[in-house]
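Appendix B, record 7
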Amino acid sequence: MALHVCAREDGIRRSKDLPAEIGKYPNSTNERKKMSNKTIKQRISMVAVTVVTAGLFSAVTAPSANAGTLTIGANGATSTSTSGLLSGTTGSAISSTTATGKMLLSGQISVVTAAGALTSAVVVSGGTIVSCSTTSDAVTLSADKTICTTSSNNAAGITSLIKPNAVGTPLVIMGKTTNSATSWSTDAAITISVVANSTIGVFDAASSFLSVETSGQAAADNVDATYTSAAGKTGIAGTTVVNGGSGYMGYFVKDSNGTSLSTVIGANVTGGCDVGAAGAGTFNAASSTTANSYFQLTQSTANAPAKCVLTITVAGVAVGSRTFTFLGEVASITISGQSVVKKSSTANSAAFFVAALDTAGNSLDNVTVVPASAYYNAGLTTVSNVTTIPGSSSATANGADVTCASAGTYPMQMAAVNASAVTIKSAVFNIRCADTPVNYKASLDKASYVPGDIATLTISATDSKGNLANDYDTIGTGTTAAPAISGGQLTAVTAATSTDTFVNGVKTYKFIVGSTEGSYQLSVDLPKYNSSTYSQTALTVAYAVKASTASVSNADVLKSIVSLIASINKQIQALQKLILKR
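Structure tokens (predicted):
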């Protein structure tokens, strides 16, 4: 069975002089009142019955802006117009299940069951049948105008004009095959959402798309794009734009029915940016009625950092905005995280870190920073270039590698050429190079502790020339020469391991002091550096644990007693004076 459905707003001429009810479907009011409760219940449940056999609906649209069509067949998918409302397009087939669509409250739908389907009735819920007819049999329209039946199963098809009841109440149209008051079978059904006429052409945020894009394209969803930097950093917000680049805001604006809006779509921008052909703070001169497009942002002043807000408007009303940050050219270079490098033929990784900044203090991505050649000397074999990747999770990102030929302190400066062809230099800083540690010393921060104290151990290491050790040699080697540090009534907060390194020649460890009083020795043994050549052996550091008690002398006790007696005497005198006054 197939239903041909078309919708139109003005309706069609009602069929007149329909024949009296034939068969088992009462038509008059009196006859309907006599219907048994059982039969009424069957008619109600019939509306919601599950599809059980393959059916066929097809739809044709009347030329009306407030109506549309939907096609339903066997084994495929429905097809509707891009407006989201039922339209005159011919859809592919679907299996005999409920198909959905939308129509306006003011619309009407013409349903024609396909010839040869042996349809007995058309049943409607959420709406009423304006008229119905067939070319081969008599038809009967129920008093509530929800059921149109034929005198018998017929192959000619039933034509019905149907209108919805209310916005928000689905209109369900069903084709029935079994001509029996006690047994109804649904061949196919159409479920149609009913929407208000006022939804046409009105911007709907839930149906529309607004998002930041990485290039000139329309929005496909409401998710802002992210960039991958030229230097390889991922996850940069799409609203961050590199110097000389463009920011893009895509849009696809629709009403609640999915209809693309053909209205004026524009953009306002505040801050140091231009949108389209317009200047900052003005309405975009290139605004159009294209519902599916984008706006492009650029810096108002070349090479200058800027922060601006782009607001998209539909028919003059703001519907969404984004804040874009434009990065400027390199204006300064900073150095941080300097390490004491190791004298070696192998480069020391991330010996110091570099950042390139614009005048607004933004860290710049993909800037190549190099050593200023004037600061090379024989002590430093190499200092690597750095390509900046701000915010990278890598521990060595933005770090320069340094190879040191001999121990000593060497001045260095880093530089980069900006977009204006100006060379920007860092302040001069020192790179210190030290040899491998050969001696070490140990000390505690106090000579005596009370239970619960935190004791701090400081180990300082020096090379053969007495310079503080570098930051790359570890304090131990695996398990064969692992550090051993222990002392009575001391529990390490973090135990020493072979992979620990000195920082500017110093390494510290903390311990929790126990409760047992006494004098103790802390043993500090770094086997990796114990050597008779440099007279280095394990060390011991003396310390004590004492209870926190304060002694009180007899004189202090006597003084307190005298003070108490004097206070009592004053109170007695005051009480006597009070009594005498009464």
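Remarks on this record: The CA atoms of residues 204 and 256 lie 5 Å apart. The first helix runs from residue 29 to 33.
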